[in-house]
Amino acid sequence: MQNWIAKRTAAFDSSGIRRVFDLAAKLENPINLSIGQPDFRVPDAVRNACTAAIEADKNGYSQTQGIGPLRDRLQSDLDARYGHEDRSVFVSSGTSGGLTLAMLSMVDPGDEVLFFDPYFVMYPALIRMVGGVPIAIDSYPDFRIDCEKVAAKITPRTKMIIVNSPANPTGVTATREELKDLADLAAANNIALVSDEIYSAFMYDEAFASPAEFNPQTIVIDGFSKSHAMTGWRVGYVHGPSEIINTMLKLQQYTFVCAPQPAQWAGLQAIDIDLSQHIADYRRKRDMIVDGLSDLYELEVPGGAFYAFPKAPRTSGAAFVEEAIAKSLLIIPGNIFSARDSHFRISFAASDETLQRGIEVLRALAK
Ligand code: PMP
Question: For the Aminotransferase class I/classII large domain, which residue ranges apply (predicted)?
């Protein structure tokens, strides 16, 4: 098997997150605040729609772009919301599938792609996978979008900017003004703006805003994984200018083929589910974390998603996480998501009891 492994795979690794999961596997009854998915059940109507589709023999391939009824519904919602002349949608194999196809469709070898540090782990890996050059924009200590910093990183090779609000791992949400400035900057410089809106349902203090409201060429990637706790079902969707969407579809045809068909029928049902009780629960859990830690930790209040990203006291993020794991508390070191090793990620998608136990351990560790 000499030289079988392609060189592109050496450009990134996944050892950091694996190390955390290896440590986790050794814990007997961990206080687990490391999980990147909701802790509620897939809503009953969504489960029923999936099993009904299976029983009705809707088990084959769908069209590459997704089943008609789901696409039509997404398209009419988008048309009502944005009123853009040229915005079309397709169903992808999760948000991850959409991100992968966006990179393959728009990033040539040597192209630079800007994103904010801390970042979702997949961004630099995907950029490298297609031969692009990841350019991180440090957003510490408040994790806000600073357009001057972005402008300073733009070169003739800049092809794409990725924005993610609400953000993983910080939970920070960008303001409408920040998103407008970023949208205008991308438009003025002919740079593709990709907006990862997977956490858009989880907004606690303000209404969700998308840069697509300000820049009609924004490529938006969204999905049902987080909003409806269906991460394993692999249904996402992408909307943007039709030339980009058609290119992504050409590639989807030869890679993912389509999103799982029964899960697409479930997605159609999911659009009409009222999530307000879950959002209220997560807002309360967010408040538990903020109230429980803010006097002892440097912590930006998360306006969305289900993450908080406090600064580790005394030590590095990685050293602090080892101390926490020694007390059976599972959290993720910030250096998984960042060039810096100063913070750690808490997921508050957990039971109140688990959160309370986690807060107690963190309070004891800070003293
Ligand atoms: N983007 C972000 C910011 C995420 O946190 C995640 C999931 N961790 C994804 C995309 C991928 O989600 P999906 O399950 O839809 O592929």
Answer: 29-362
**Which of 42, 117, 168 to mutate for ligand 1's pocket (most ligand atoms within 8 Å of CB)?**
168
Torsion of the alpha carbons at 313, 164, 350 and 284, rounded to the nearest 10: 90
Tell which residue, 224, 192, 225, 222, has the closest CA to residue 210: 222
pTM over 0.90: yes
Ligand 1, from 99, 117, 122, 202: best to mutate by most atoms within 8 Å of Cβ? 122
pLDDT digits (tens, 9 = 90+) for 136-168: 999 999 999 999 999 999 999 999 999 999 999
- The domain limits of the chain are 7-42+275-366, 60-271
Kindly report the three-state secondary structure assignment for every residue of 147-158.
HHHHHHHCCCCE
Asked whether the predicted pLDDT for residue 29 surpasses 90, the reply is no
CA distances from 227 to 47, 195, 259, 338, 348 (A): 14, 16, 17, 25, 15
CATH class of 7-42+275-366: alpha beta
What's the pLDDT score for residue 276?
97
- Over range 52-58, report the average pLDDT: 98
The predicted pLDDT at position 193 comes to 98
pLDDT of the residue at 309: 98
Q: Indicate if ligand 1 lies below 6 Å from the C-beta of 95.
A: yes
CATH code, 60-271: 3.40.640.10
Q: Does ligand 1 have an atom closer than 6 angstroms to the CB of 96? A: yes
Ligand 1 contacts CB of residue 304 (under 6 A) = no
Evaluate: CB of 223 within 6 angstroms of ligand 1: yes
